[in-house]
DNA sequence: TGCGCCGGTCGATGTCATCAAGCATTTTTC
DNA sequence: GAAAAATGCTTGATGACATCGACCGGCGCA
């Protein structure tokens, strides 16, 4: 699926996506045009969805994170989903199997803010929140086969 | 904390971190050197932690995702944490308050693989897994104040 | 009022991305 | 099994870009 050079390119770009093509090329042992061509194909194949920036929420004042499980009351599933999407402090949310229909990550500046946000959901769903104390595994790639 | 130009720079880079300085500059209405200077300071301030690539796990064969809650048995907390860190299919894991000590995201190619991985934890912790059916909120930034 | 600082522009210079041409190796086809 | 075609690479030329120094205007402050 990915050969060794592709893997090293992806791993290199995960560390610094704004590296020059020239440097990327020499790190994986290719010429710039070849690296450019491979990069283009990784994007075309959908392996690389895009290039982005890693922003630290804490540096923006969001010193707290919570993982919130949400179980909409009967008939409220769509309302709740819309509500979640409209609350920008949810930086991600998954719809999952099981009783807890949604699991989301909330970035907040205080416990107060958590309370305010959950109040908006409280009459449409049961919620269960856990404050993030540490991140033993920071965002990383699964193994590149 | 962030002025309007900073915000637009960050938002632009979230969309495409490999854009040229020149284009970034003209999108926010600055000259290239000014944009370069601001970018450098956003990194120095820790607002921007780095530039990275958005890899699609599905394109690598990881067509399934699970959210796993993990409650280590008494005395097993550190062993479990080490184990989680060593399992590369965990793309992220948070240590949280409450009974479920850890919440992680697992990328797997089949239900079989889920079973295999959870077996490695089973004698040290209780786990509760939910398969991700959809992602109503894809990874996004909290509001930039 | 005058001084110094901050954040900006402009223009020159060296680095980089990109394109076309060509080459070696592998795959396909008859 | 040999000719043809397709891959994937390199090199060198050209135009675009990042970066640096010099300079400028507005603002806070003694």
Automatic annotation (TrEMBL), chains A, B:
This is AsnC family transcriptional regulator. It holds the Pfam family AsnC_trans_reg. Residues 2-63 form the HTH asnC-type domain. GO terms for molecular function: sequence-specific DNA binding. The lineage of its organism: Bacteria, Pseudomonadati, Pseudomonadota, Alphaproteobacteria, Hyphomicrobiales. PROSITE patterns: HTH_ASNC_1 (PS00519), HTH_ASNC_2 (PS50956). PANTHER family: ASNC-FAMILY TRANSCRIPTIONAL REGULATORY PROTEIN, LEUCINE-RESPONSIVE REGULATORY PROTEIN. It comes from the Bacteria. Keywords: DNA-binding, Transcription, Transcription regulation.
